[in-house]
Design goal:
Length: 247
């Protein structure tokens, strides 16, 4: 037996009791079944078995609720326990589509967008990943250009007649026209980053308008590298522009 402890846990993952596994200690055989039926913390039902195969929830001998997380899956049949996030149950990939540290992301809109794009990537919602990535970069460009040119040149990023901000393509063109000006903040490889942004726009547009086509896995990995590079550069540029024009 690999596990020498078992537990009573509510469906939300609140641990109620941890005892020796019956196979490890016969005189403790029934204690795992004793206790309240519902969690006093959240009101959810308390369980002690896998709901698929009825095997006891198994823990390692050195498991401690202050230092260890509960297992996500039954060791016997592999079924996910109820406390596992429903989205995590459907994850088919590991890793991130946008490989960026949280400390490099600021603002209210951006952290959740990066999180959602990476979550879509892990569950293989590839079209959604590309569409969210496109939206992320479009908003970063809008922020950068708006802060750089100021409201005296509002026409660069906002169509006053239509009362809407410039299209993604127009924002890319405005960014490209000003790459020399952006060198005052830090060096940006003009052709490299603009080409990558155009490619990301193309892939995002294709996903938005033709969801029936599957995204090739190899292409997705290549796009991920470009996206990570572009997003890191744009977040840094956004911070530098904001600092330079503060006040």
């Amino acid at each position: 037996m690999d596990n020498s402890k078992t537990a009573r846990v509510c469906r939300n993952g609140h641990v109620k009791k941890v005892v020796a596994h019956p196979s490890a200690r016969n005189d403790n055989k029934w204690s795992v079944y004793e206790g309240n039926a519902y969690c006093g913390r959240c009101g959810e039902e308390i369980i002690n078995k896998c709901e698929c195969c009825d095997s006891l929830i198994g823990l390692q001998s050195d498991w401690n609720k202050d230092f260890n997380e509960l297992p996500n899956n039954c060791k016997k049949c592999g079924t996910a326990y109820p406390w596992v996030d429903p989205i995590e149950k459907n994850e088919e990939r590991e890793g991130k589509f946008i490989e960026i540290d949280d400390k490099e992301i600021d603002g209210h809109f951006y952290p959740s967008t990066v999180y959602e794009a990476n979550l879509c990537y892990r569950v293989k919602a590839d079209h959604a990943t590309l569409i969210l990535t496109r939206k992320l970069i479009e908003n970063l460009l809008l922020d950068i250009i708006r802060k750089h040119v100021s409201m005296t040149n509002v026409h660069v990023f906002f169509d006053t007649e239509q009362r809407q901000h410039a299209s993604f393509g127009e924002l890319i063109d405005a960014f490209k026209e000003r790459t020399d000006e952006f060198q005052q903040y830090f060096t940006v490889e003009e052709e490299d980053i603009v080409d990558k942004i155009y490619r990301i726009k193309y892939d995002g547009d294709a996903s938005a308008h033709s969801i029936e086509e599957r995204v090739d896995a190899d292409d997705l990995e290549s796009i991920s590298d470009d996206v990570t590079y572009v997003v890191k550069v744009l977040f840094r540029l956004r911070r530098e522009v904001e600092t330079a024009h503060r006040g």
